[in-house]
Amino acid sequence: MPIPKPNVNESQENYMKRCISFLVNEGTEQEQAVAICNTQWDDRNEDENDDKSFIDLLTIKSNKEFTVTNYEIKNEIIDIETQNKTVDIVLNTYLFMDHEDDVLLPGCSAKSIKENGPENNSKNPKIKFCKDHVMTVDSPGKFLILKEEKINNEEKLWARAEFVNDDIGMGLYERYLKEMIDQHSIGFLYGKILLASKDKQQGFDYNTQDNYHKYIEKLLNPEKADKTGYFFLVPEIKLIEGSAVPWGCNEKTEVLSVKSLEGKKTNLLYRMSILQKSLFNSKSEEFRYYANLEIAHIKNEIENILNIIYEPSIKSTLFKKIEPEKIDTPKGIDYNYIINKI
How many Å apart are CA 142 and CA 240, to the nearest integer? Predict the structure, then answer.
């Protein structure tokens, strides 16, 4: 027998009347019904905190400046065309619950592709082809085709990429030919995101359980969703770029991408240096757009490193802020010199 829970903004008096009446009608003794309803009222804050954690997490996700898909599934190469030096690649596999507990739905990229894809502006499409999610003027090439289609009975986002005839473009192309690259990922902003949960959650203007039961059997890895008891549906994203990555960025191999933290730090400092110098040389609207994305991506990289170091749980990070260790700052440091060296 389900015990009624307090509704949002419901007074204790109204709740107790409703709860006791329900239990008594179900055959519970009056005294026992009062005790049960009192306990349920006293425990309401715990339920509210659980619901609030999901609401807060959705807010955090929606406000993220840049997100990269990390999968336990390969987004593979479909074909390599040697005459025109193009590759057909899978950038994303839909209906797969990733390390962020996100499930990107088929059609989520359609609006971005229509507005910013190669067919809309073939000379300079805004959705970029990158390596390792690094967006600079030294792009290895561009997308000729971006489409969402079913491939081998799975919903995919695939692309045809053409390489620039320079050292960077041809260098990446050679790596494809030598089968040194067999994984891809996308960088995006959340457009819309919904909670799907096994248990009913309060505070939402939709039924989170309906979302869960509607999609759980459609997932490629439903066992993961069943274990967590929830996932996040993403019906719309703003697609920014698609990248070739040298290894699978998933939960099991993510540490490899920061195996050498010193090397990762050097890479980030170099990118910050290039960005800093470029800020003085370009004032175009397009440059500012991509500069902001590069800044967001660098911040995302730093966040990923910290997540690996601290390994915080999803919910605990919503309420417990990790305070940095207090270190006495040495005197006499020339900060201008350090900044100029970056």
Answer: 13
Whether the Cβ atoms of residue 95 and residue 65 lie closer than 8 Å to each other: no
Question: What does the alpha-carbon distance between residue 331 and residue 339 come to, in Å, rounded to a whole number?
Answer: 17
Residues, the chain: 342
- Each domain of the chain, given as residue ranges in start order, spans 12-62, 67-248
How many Å apart are CA 187 and CA 241, to the nearest integer? 5
Residue-wise pLDDT for 61-77, tens only, equals 666 655 666 555 556 77
pLDDT exceeds cutoff 50 at 188: yes
Helix (H) or strand (E) holding 150: strand 141-151
Alpha-carbon separation of residue 249 from 176, 187, 225, 325 (angstroms): 18, 13, 20, 30
How is the chain split among helix, strand and coil, in percent rounded to 5? 40, 20, 35
Phi and psi, residue 203, nearest 5°: 90, 5
